[in-house]
Prior knowledge:
Layout: H1 5-14, E1 27-28, H2 31-40, E2 48-52, H3 58-65, E3 69-74, H4 80-87, E4 94-98, H5 106-109, E5 116-121, H6 127-137, E6 141-149, H7 150-157, H8 167-175, E7 176-184, E8 189-190, E9 197-204, H9 211-225, H10 232-235, H11 242-248, H12 261-268
Parallel strand pairs: 2-3, 2-5, 3-4, 5-6
Antiparallel strand pairs: 1-8, 6-9, 7-9
Helix pairs in contact: 2-3, 6-8, 8-9, 9-12
Amino acid sequence: xxxxxxxxxxxxxxxxxxxxxxxxxxxxxxxxxxxxxxxxxxxxxxxxxxxxxxxxxxxxxxxxxxxxxxxxxxxxxxxxxxxxxxxxxxxxxxxxxxxxxxxxxxxxxxxxxxxxxxxxxxxxxxxxxxxxxxxxxxxxxxxxxxxxxxxxxxxxxxxxxxxxxxxxxxxxxxxxxxxxxxxxxxxxxxxxxxxxxxxxxxxxxxxxxxxxxxxxxxxxxxxxxxxxxxxxxxxxxxxxxxxxxxxxxxxxxxxxxxxxxxxxxxxxx
Length: 269
C-alpha cells in the first residue's frame, strides 16, 4: 500500500489542510522514492524503525510494507489525526506519536527495542540539529537514511578539503559514517521545493572518546570554524599553545577545513 500525488492532495483537501512553510513541509508523493528510502535505510522485517517527519504517511507505509515496526514522530498536531487515519489498517505495525524531535524524551520513546533504524524526511531549517541530537542522545539508533536538502547532505558527508566540510561534517563523524547515496528531484514532492534534495546513509560506529573529550573536541571545532578563514594559531590562539599543536602533529598554520576528526581528537587531548 503506497500513496501517490493524487492521494496526498485528496487527503489535504479532505482535512482542509495545506503544507506548512513554517514547518518546512514537503510531502514525498512518489511511491518508488519512498520504497527506495526504506531499502537504503536497511530496514527489514521485524526491525524497529524511528521515522521523523512522517507527514501524511507515504514513507510510513513503505516502511511498514517491509514488515518493520514503525514509530512515527510528527510535530504538526493538525497532521497527526490524518496520519493515524492513513495507517489505521496496519496498526499495530505503526505507532504515531505527536512530538517535536528536538524536545521529545528519546529514552522513553525508544525504550521498547534494543536496536533501531532511522528513516527521516527532515525539514531543511532544523534537519542538521535534529540529526546531531539523535546521534548524541539515542545510542540504540544503529543507522539509517535521512532525506535532506542537497547542500545539507553534502555538509554531513563532506571530508577534509571538500568545499562543504565544516562543523556538521566533524560532529556527524564523531558518531557515524555518512555517505550521500542519491539525489531526489523536486518533482517527487508536494509542494515542489526550490532546491534539490539528497539521501544520506548513516551507520553508527564507536566514538573516538568519552563525553568530556567530545565536548572538548566540539568546542575546538566550533571556535575554529567560527573563523574558518584564519589559521588555527589565530582562531585557537587563546586556548591552544604552540606546543600543543606540535604534540598533536597538527600544523598551527592549518585552517580548520584541513583537519580530519582524528586530528581534532589529538588536538583536544
